[in-house]
């Protein structure tokens, strides 16, 4: 949606849906200043009763060949900055998502493995949920980073250490095929 007029005074005149009680920020390749303004207006109108929810804090998404694009965390941070409040993150590393899935499908954490390529989201979520963790070294995280966390005396950094790692998910598929 475009901004409703040429000036900021026009932008705050657009009608708001009275039923909206939450602002959800997820991956949106069409994120715009107009959407940011609308999100802020809903949050200001609703005050603390209007929830600010983010799907995740991934700061960038890796692409082949070492390229990357901004991730959802950049959009969440923009809305948090405008609203001057922190979003409740329902995705990794928060255990909210896992708890919902575990209740619905009777998941046994002792028989579950979290596979991912990020220490600060995938591995941290697995460790927060008491799952076995497997890091894939796809270019987001390096083995040197893992070793740095492993050698640290800081408990928060130790929670970023996976149980296992593989160079590629293909390595895991090969083992599972045996």
UniProtKB/TrEMBL annotation:
Q: Name one GO molecular function term.
A: sn-glycerol 3-phosphatase activity
Q: How does it sit in the membrane?
A: Peripheral membrane protein
**UniProt KW keywords:** Cell membrane, Cytoplasm, Membrane
Cytoplasm listed as a keyword: yes
A GO CC annotation recorded here is: plasma membrane
Q: What is its main location?
A: membrane
User: Localized where?
Assistant: Cell membrane; Cytoplasm, Cytosol
Q: Which InterPro entries match?
A: HAD-like_sf, HAD_sf
| PANTHER family per record | 4-NITROPHENYLPHOSPHATASE-RELATED (PTHR19288), GLYCEROL-3-PHOSPHATE PHOSPHATASE (PTHR19288:SF92)
Question: What name appears for this protein in its UniProt entry?
Answer: PGP phosphatase
Q: What's the source species' lineage?
A: Eukaryota, Metazoa, Chordata, Craniata, Vertebrata
